[in-house]
Amino acid sequence: MTNIFIRPELAKFEKSPVQSYLLMNWTHLERAFTRALLLSISKKKLFFAFPVLVLCGILSVFCKAVAFEASPWVSMSFAFLPILVSSGLLLALGVLLIRLHDAEVKRMVFDFKRWIGTSIDLVVGTSYLAFLPILSYLFLWMLLGVFFLLKEIPLLGDFFSIVFSFGPFLLIFGSLLLCLSNLVLLFFVAPAAALQSVVRIPLAKRVWNVVNQKFLTSLLLFLIAMIPIGLVSGLLYLAAALTDSHFLVAEQSLSVALEWFFIMIPFAAILTPAVIFFFNFAAESFLLLQGGAPIPSFYGTKARETSETPS
Fold this sequence. Notes:
The protein is an all-alpha fold. The protein is built from 10 helices and no strands. α1 runs antiparallel to α10 (253-289) and α2 (43-68) packs across α10 (253-289). The protein is globular, with a radius of gyration of 24 Å.
């Protein structure tokens, strides 16, 4: 119903630009999401992603087995440490997958040797970013050890554990924030490093310039990227928890490691397409935030062919 205080032709004129803008941006977002989803099932990407996820899974299984018979303080450290260490491997994987995604979208001729040669510098140059969260977590873990020591003081331990209970709570909360910040790091830093332009801008400055101008849009794109990986990870974790509570019977570290190792392999295989989509959509989102749009020829009847190789 048209507002009676505005002439119909003027109301139509005022609403049209906004509607056109929203429709254009929604179309670009839908194309980017569809392309990231379709290219998630790629043999080349699966070939690179699955071994890395298996390696991360082996690290998690090892930490779980060590923490099985360890003290609460050590067990707590092994709950977060594999996540933070795996983020370094995933950051390197993300750079490779995003460069490969860019080559697939542009229909470039894939030269494996040249692609690896030009990607190795970026992988090494961005992997160091994962060390800061790890060092930060080790600092939080050492502080947490102080509260565990206070708890073991004879006669006064129970008193200290009650009065200073806020300390472990804040430290564990900080560890969870570090894990979340690593996901944000993977989503924004990996495409910024992989899709560098000819003009080399410092990585942190480039990411900040993109996110700072469109913070809400960046947050929404990150949440969209997390939907598939969140759903798949949630279902896999629920299945693993039910299997652990109703089927697994191991009571020693070695047996626990073997049981979870054989569970981890299909876990990583099922999770691989979701991880690939995460990085595919990260690349698409980075271009959208910079004002780019999906290449229309990807959806056309005939894709553009080029003899270029991914640089």
